[in-house]
Prior knowledge:
By secondary structure, the protein is an alpha/beta fold. The chain has 14 helices and 25 strands. The strands form 5 sheets. A 9-stranded mixed sheet has the order 2-1-9-8-10-11-12-13-14, sandwiched between helices. A 6-stranded mixed sheet has the order 5-3-4-6-7-17, sandwiched between helices. Strands 15, 16, 18, 19 and 20 form a 5-stranded antiparallel sheet that branches. Helix 6 packs across helix 7. It is globular and about 70 Å long.
Amino acid sequence: MRFSGFSALLAHWAVQSPDAPALLYDRHGEKEVCTFSELDRRVRDRANVLRSEHKQTLGILCDGSFDCVIEIFASVLAGRRTVLMNENASDRVLREQITEAGIDALFGDPELAEENGPYLSEHAEGGEGTVLFFTSGTTSRAKAVVLTDASLMNSAYNGGALLPLTPSDTLLCMLPLDHVFGFVCGLLWGLSCGACVALGRGARHYGEDCIRYRPTVLSAVPALLGFLLKYRALNPELRTILLGGSGCPEPILRAAKTTDARVCFGYGLTETSSGVALSLGEGDPYAMTVCPDDTITIAPDGEVLIEAPTCMMQGYWQHPEDTEAVLRDGVLHTGDLGFLDADGKLHLTGRKKEILVLSDGTKLFLPEYEQALSDALGGEPVCVLLIDDRPILVLEGEMRDTAPIWERIRPVLDERARNQQITTIEFYEKPLPRTASGKIMRWAIQREREGL
Length: 452
């Protein structure tokens, strides 16, 4: 069902299914149930409190909890600009985001909120009820993508139109809510269909939550699914797995096929409020049906172009030049490469831009990373490749002792999340191949490395 926004979603199910479970969550080690009528009441009560506080822009440190979900919905209903933030981000990143979005209030971890309180804005602009998600996008600088509750609900409708859920379903939400895939496909998709959403208890409980909550549907990134398969943590009631965030390694796909659940793939971007195409668990898993509201065309150079009028971002917050660079006349230039087959299904083949996408959906902007590593090594030419979902460092010249190299690049690595850190150093015993404009030809190094 299509809803105009969060308020319409809550009001509809509060009337149609007041006593049906909306959210299943943990409270002090016990499972709790929140019905649709209770969810509607709690959100509106909290929204009234937020209105009385006369703040404009609320940063929410997303921990995936019940209180966090209430706060997100209430903030939007209160007309605030709502900024979803990763509670595990470094203090430096959080401070940059607070400044970038002009946040004047924080919700979440009290200690983190207190530590970052001095960075809150004293002159926030008027709230608009918009929702901001930070993304690395197509540049080295993290940008806030401006979405609305309407665009997010339209995206949930698109997903439900292709993969409908029923009120008897339970969707397990294990993904971070500050990522648009987690927010739409882990939360709104289920609620928009009148299904129950079980809120996972975080990374420490990944191996237990499927058995605890007995979901029929799970949204996951490939890295998470790989973990659940490895430790046999999937429950027998599970019938549908929706994967997104990045490409899926073949070993994980093969393992997933041994379960009774159908495995579907979703392709989308923060800029389009999440998914624009889905495979439906039949035939080629990488052949994706385009969502009802969206139109996909392929540029002459193979770039995927998207028109998504109901789901498209309003733009990058306070960066109109970046918006204009990718969104032209309502068409999003994604930087992804692909083709449409004879049946109109989308197949992805690669990426134009210099971004690596790790299996958990994290984006690694290579020019910035390589420049930092090169600077640490006194300007030495470097190249970063993604091998088996781990970044490796390729250096120009003959093999030599790596101990001094590790010592010099350690400060650069310490600034990165663990899954972004270099794990291996290799040597390329000739000049690194470059284009006429001087850019390193990573694809050529990788092909040569693989003996192709």
